[in-house]
Amino acid sequence: MSTESTLRIVWIYPDLLSTYGDRGNLLILARRAAVRGIPVETYSVRSDQPMPSTADIYLIGGGEDGPQALAAQRLITDGGLHRAVNQGAAVLAICAGYQLFGHSFFAKGTKCPGLGLLDLHSDRGETRAVGEIRGDIDPRLGLPPLSGFENHGGRTHLGPGVAPLARVTAGIGNDGQTEGAWNGKILGTYSHGPALARNPAIADLLLRWATGADSLAPVDDTWPDKLRAERLAAAGA
C-alpha cells in the first residue's frame, strides 16, 4: 500500500457505517499525525472492496441495524481485518462498529455473529440511550475523562478478555456502569462527537500505538480543549 515509514489509516465501509459523522475521526487522526511531520496515507475501503491487512490504524463507525449486519458478514468473509489485528494494527470501533467487534449483536431483532475480536456481546436495552456520556478512562491508558454523545439501543456485556474503556459518570454506555472496552490495541466505544474531536488524547494514543513512539510532540489543542470543557460541563462534570 505504501512505504514502511508512512502511517496508513483505513476507514472501514463508509458506505455502510458512516451515519453519525464518524469520518471526522479519520480527518483528526490524519491531521494530528501530519502536524507532527508523520507522513500519512488514508484509505476509504467500501464494502465491495477487499480489506487490506497491512495498514496501521483501522477505523469503523456507527450505523443502522441492516448495514451493521451486512458489514459484519462481509468482514468475517473477507478476513483482512482479522489478519491486520493479528499483525498488531490499532483499531478504533464506534457504536455499531464496536458491537460487531464482539461475539454477537442484535440487528432488527435477530442475533448476528460478530467478528470475535473483542470478548463481549451486545443485546437490546429496554430504553434507548441518547445524550451526553462521560466516563473516567481506565487509568492504565493514562488518558483524561471520556467525553461523547451516545445514541444507541444496545447494551453491551463484557467478558474476562477485555477491560472497560471507562467507568460511567454520566450517561449509559455499555450498561450504565461501564462504557466501551479495550484489549491490546483495540478500543471500542459508544462515543460519537466525533469521538476523537472530543478526545484528542485517544487519537494520540492510537498514533503512539501505530508508530511505536513512547511520546508525541505536543500540538495546539486550544480549540479541542474548549470543546471538551463545554461538553463535559453539559454532562454535569
Automatic annotation (TrEMBL):
CobB/CobQ-like glutamine amidotransferase domain segment(s): 8-199
Keyword Ligase set for record: yes
Pathway(s) the chain acts in: Cell wall biogenesis; peptidoglycan biosynthesis
Protein name: Lipid II isoglutaminyl synthase (glutamine-hydrolyzing) subunit GatD
EC number from the UniProt entry: 6.3.5.13, 3.5.1.2
HAMAP family: Lipid_II_synth_GatD
Free-text function comment from the UniProt entry: The lipid II isoglutaminyl synthase complex catalyzes the formation of alpha-D-isoglutamine in the cell wall lipid II stem peptide. The GatD subunit catalyzes the hydrolysis of glutamine to glutamate and ammonia. The resulting ammonia molecule is channeled to the active site of MurT.
Binding site for substrate: 128
Keyword annotations of the record: Cell shape, Cell wall biogenesis/degradation, Glutamine amidotransferase, Hydrolase, Ligase, Peptidoglycan synthesis
CDD domains assigned: GATase1_CobQ
Active site: 95 (nucleophile), 192
Subunit structure: Forms a heterodimer with MurT.
The keyword Hydrolase is annotated on this UniProt entry: yes
Catalytic reactions of this protein: beta-D-GlcNAc-(1->4)-Mur2Ac(oyl-L-Ala-gamma-D-Glu-L-Lys-D-Ala-D-Ala)-di-trans,octa-cis-undecaprenyl diphosphate + L-glutamine + ATP + H2O = beta-D-GlcNAc-(1->4)-Mur2Ac(oyl-L-Ala-D-isoglutaminyl-L-Lys-D-Ala-D-Ala)-di-trans,octa-cis-undecaprenyl diphosphate + L-glutamate + ADP + phosphate + H(+); L-glutamine + H2O = L-glutamate + NH4(+)
Top-level taxon in the UniProt lineage: Bacteria
UniProt similarity note: Belongs to the CobB/CobQ family. GatD subfamily.
